């Protein structure tokens, strides 16, 4: 008599699928990796949330963000930066070669999305643009209304399975699981909705609004956003950067008031009042430089009159696993 073996846990299947894809990458394997990361999150028992466990008082001065080299990045530096000053810049988190390779992957992903939308009969480039069966929801705001998506804009990382695979390998090589566990006191997880490849045109067609991501993400969350520049951008560069209100104030500001253009943005008049105490910052980033902040950070895409090039970046929101909202479609790292 034979007994039926219990199906392997998603975490075990994920480890096996990762090994297989390293040996022989394919679109089918890379899509399955996304499904297994989603399933592994759902299957695992996470600890009870510990709200406020990591809070520390904001620093008094916020005239610039603290900066550390990649070798000095640890949970303590992250805590001091995010909770003390509102953010932390890590110079050369990626070396130039790795940044250039990632940038090429983003180009390929946006080109594959564009080709898929044109649907002209040419074979689909499914490793670079293709949806895993476990991902739900349409990133409507990421496509042009009723038209084929352009070869720029924003794209969910999970919708480019090869890029998602590369990024997760990179995050492990950088030691992010241990860094996030040290910061959160529990594992950090990604999410399908807030893990985004960005290729911002030099002259955005609509004014990017001031906002706090905490406005959209749900209650009781603890987060770390890792934003990695893949272009020279920001102050004095020729591509749009990231403009921030310095300092940390753990409150969600009103939106749709004070001259705001949209109901989800913080009005420019309110930002101007805040800037009396908290200066506006427009850091310069080189390809491979990173910025860490959390859901209280007030920021927008910054632009300059001399901007002439695209700004490439990868945005990865990590949630303390016990606080990750299901609607964000959490994935294990
Ligand atoms: Fe944001």
What is the structure about, briefly put?
The chain is an alpha+beta fold and 333 residues long. Helices cover 29% and strands 19% of the residues. Fe (ii) ion binds next to loops.
Write up this protein.
The protein is of the alpha+beta class and 333 residues long. It has a single domain (59-331), classed as q2cbj1_9rhob like domain (Jelly Rolls). Helix content is 29%, strand content 19%. It is built from eight helices and 15 strands. It has helices spanning 10-23, 27-43, 75-85, 96-118, 161-173, 176-184, 214-217, 268-274, and strands spanning 67-69, 88-91, 153-156, 188-191, 195-200, 211-212, 223-229, 233-234, 241-245, 280-281, 284-285, 290-293, 298-302, 311-320, 330-331. The strands form three sheets. Strands 1, 2, 3, 4, 5, 7, 12, 14 and 15 form a nine-stranded mixed sheet that branches. Strands 6-13-9-10 form a four-stranded antiparallel sheet. A two-stranded antiparallel sheet has the order 8-11. Helix 3 links the parallel strand 1 (67-69) and strand 2 (88-91). The chain starts with 9 loop residues before the first helix and ends with a strand. The mean pLDDT is 90. The structure holds fe (ii) ion.
Span between termini: 40 Å
- What quaternary form is this? single chain
Which strand-content bin applies to the residues?
Answer: 15-25%
Alpha carbon gyration radius: 20 Å
Q: Point out poorly predicted stretches.
A: none
Helix percentage range: 25-40%
At CATH level 3, the topology is: Jelly Rolls
């Amino acid at each position: 008599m034979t007994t039926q073996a219990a199906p392997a846990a998603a975490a075990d299947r994920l480890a096996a699928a990762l090994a297989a894809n390293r040996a022989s990458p394919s679109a089918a394997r890379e899509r399955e990796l996304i499904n297994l990361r989603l399933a592994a999150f759902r299957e695992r028992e996470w600890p009870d949330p510990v709200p406020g466990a990591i809070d520390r008082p904001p620093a008094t001065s916020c005239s610039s963000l603290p900066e550390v080299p990649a070798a000095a990045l640890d949970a303590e530096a992250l805590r001091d930066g995010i909770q003390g000053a509102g953010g932390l810049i890590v110079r050369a988190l990626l070396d130039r070669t790795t940044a250039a390779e990632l940038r090429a992957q983003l180009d390929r992903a946006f080109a594959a999305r564009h080709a898929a939308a044109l649907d002209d009969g040419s074979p689909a480039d499914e490793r670079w643009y293709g949806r895993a069966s476990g991902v739900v929801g349409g990133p409507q705001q990421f496509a042009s209304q009723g038209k084929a998506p352009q070869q720029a804009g924003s794209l969910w990382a999970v919708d480019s399975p090869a890029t998602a695979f590369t990024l997760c390998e990179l995050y492990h090589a950088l030691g992010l699981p241990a860094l996030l566990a040290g910061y959160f006191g529990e594992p950090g997880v990604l999410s399908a909705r807030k893990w985004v490849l960005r290729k911002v045109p030099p002259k955005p067609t609509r004014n990017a609004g001031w906002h706090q991501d905490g406005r959209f993400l749900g209650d009781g969350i603890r987060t770390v956003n890792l934003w990695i520049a893949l272009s020279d951008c920001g102050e004095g560069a020729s591509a749009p950067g990231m403009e921030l209100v310095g300092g940390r104030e753990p409150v969600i500001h009103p939106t749709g008031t004070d001259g705001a253009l949209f109901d989800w943005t913080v009005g420019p008049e309110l930002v101007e009042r805040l800037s009396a105490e908290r200066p506006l910052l427009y850091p310069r980033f080189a390809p491979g430089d990173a910025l860490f902040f959390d859901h209280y950070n007030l920021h927008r895409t910054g632009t300059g009159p001399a901007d002439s090039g695209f700004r490439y970046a990868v945005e990865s929101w990590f949630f303390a696993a016990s606080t990750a909202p299901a609607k964000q479609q959490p994935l294990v790292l």
